[in-house]
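Hi support team,

I've been running sequence recovery on a batch of backbones for a student project. Most finish fine, but this one hangs at about 90% for roughly twenty minutes before it completes. I'm not sure whether the input is malformed or the queue is just slow. I've pasted the structure tokens below so you can try to reproduce it. Let me know if you need the job ID as well.

Thanks,
M.K.
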């Protein structure tokens, strides 16, 4: 007796469910088409979620794509059952990354026309293991608030001493603990450097602030100096709050740096990376320039990066940079390389007007008041550094 009624009730319920489902679909469609608080339309991708990158013909790009494959779990999982990997993934070079990579001359057409130090960089660009000749394992014993990290060369004794006697003086400054280390490699007679190993040993013993590794200290190896320091930092100084890394010809207003850091919020301090940021740049193709990079070595544009004269970042970010640096192939320009590592972390450097890595106008160079509100100026001689430091620490003149 209740059969027809049951059938009607079933049909009614099905229609009700269908109407609810249609309403939900319309609501979702409307939500995606016109997001709340935004007047722009959201474009939903119609292609595949992941598709392989087009293989570059430039050597650095190809090697980086190989690293991307190694460290990309999605790609690894997708291809893990495929024993027939593409040739560009199987051509990995020597098993020992510190042996010369003789694939390079075959893959770079004009390799033999490149400067010798560029050739050497390309042959050994996969090597990151070098003996440490001078270490300072106790320099961060007190977990400094600010660690100055200065890239230097062995003969630059006068620059290092000027820094020690001015803005890089270790101890307590501005009520915060400050420590300083100088990063050095090995200088060779073939690079027209005098032999000063004995003098360096005496300096290191006297000041306890020199870190040295046994690699050839050239312009293209500044990136290697960067990653070796990050490794040392992760092992010997992981609790330093902040790091200011720069060249040995910069002037730094330590008081301004500490005041700035004291005023940071916890969120901003975590991923801090500030400096004189360069955006929308790319490699120079003129072989006469210091920063020349041929197209068959690297093709593309650079991510935003802070000029290598000096930049400031958090100790926590330094640890992340060390970890991610293993996923980024060494690049012969150190500040660009740091920008690449930041990009890999999904970050970008922040521009700060107090960082003047390209100097200041000539008419302001000898004005003591000019330096009161700046954080870093490049470049200055040792004599200028000492004189400017006196201007900073002397209350005269009145710079209101």
């Amino acid at each position: 007796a209740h059969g027809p009624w049951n059938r009607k009730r079933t049909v009614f319920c099905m229609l009700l469910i269908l109407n609810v489902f249609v309403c939900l679909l319309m609501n979702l469609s409307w939500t995606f088409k016109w997001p709340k608080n935004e007047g722009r339309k959201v474009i939903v991708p119609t292609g595949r979620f992941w598709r392989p990158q087009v293989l570059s013909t430039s050597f650095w790009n190809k090697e980086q794509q190989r690293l991307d494959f190694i460290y990309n779990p999605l790609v690894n999982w997708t291809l893990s059952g495929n024993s027939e990997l593409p040739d560009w993934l199987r051509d990995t070079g020597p098993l020992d990354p510190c042996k010369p990579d003789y694939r390079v001359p075959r893959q770079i057409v004009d390799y033999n026309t490149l400067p010798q130090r560029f050739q050497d960089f390309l042959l050994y660009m996969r090597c990151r293991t070098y003996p440490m000749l001078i270490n300072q394992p106790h320099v961060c014993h007190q977990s400094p608030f600010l660690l100055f990290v200065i890239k230097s060369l062995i003969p630059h004794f006068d620059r290092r001493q000027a820094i020690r006697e001015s803005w890089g003086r270790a101890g307590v400054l501005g009520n915060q603990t400050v420590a300083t280390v100088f990063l050095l490699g090995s200088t060779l007679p073939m690079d027209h450097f005098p032999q000063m190993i004995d003098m360096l040993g005496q300096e290191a013993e006297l000041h306890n602030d020199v870190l040295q590794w046994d690699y050839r200290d050239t312009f293209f190896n500044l990136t290697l100096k960067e990653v070796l320091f990050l490794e040392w930092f992760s092992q010997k100084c992981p609790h330093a709050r902040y790091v200011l890394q720069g060249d040995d010809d910069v002037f730094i207003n330590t008081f301004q740096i500490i005041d700035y850091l004291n005023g940071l919020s916890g969120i901003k301090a975590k991923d801090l990376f500030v400096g004189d940021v360069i955006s929308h740049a790319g490699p120079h193709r003129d072989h006469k320039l210091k920063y020349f990079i041929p197209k068959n070595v690297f093709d593309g544009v650079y991510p935003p990066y802070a000029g290598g004269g000096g930049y400031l970042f958090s100790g926590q970010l330094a640890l992340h940079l060390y970890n991610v640096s293993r996923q980024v192939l060494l690049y012969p320009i150190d500040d660009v390389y740091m920008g690449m590592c930041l990009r890999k972390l999904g970050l970008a450097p922040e521009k700060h007007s107090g960082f003047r890595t390209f100097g200041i106008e000539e008419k302001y160079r000898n004005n003591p008041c000019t330096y009161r509100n700046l954080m870093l100026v490049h470049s200055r001689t040792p004599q200028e550094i000492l004189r400017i430091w006196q201007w900073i620490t002397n209350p005269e003149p009145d710079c209101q």
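--
Follow-up from support: It reproduced on our side and the slowdown came from queue contention, not your input. The radius of gyration is 28 Å. No action needed from you.
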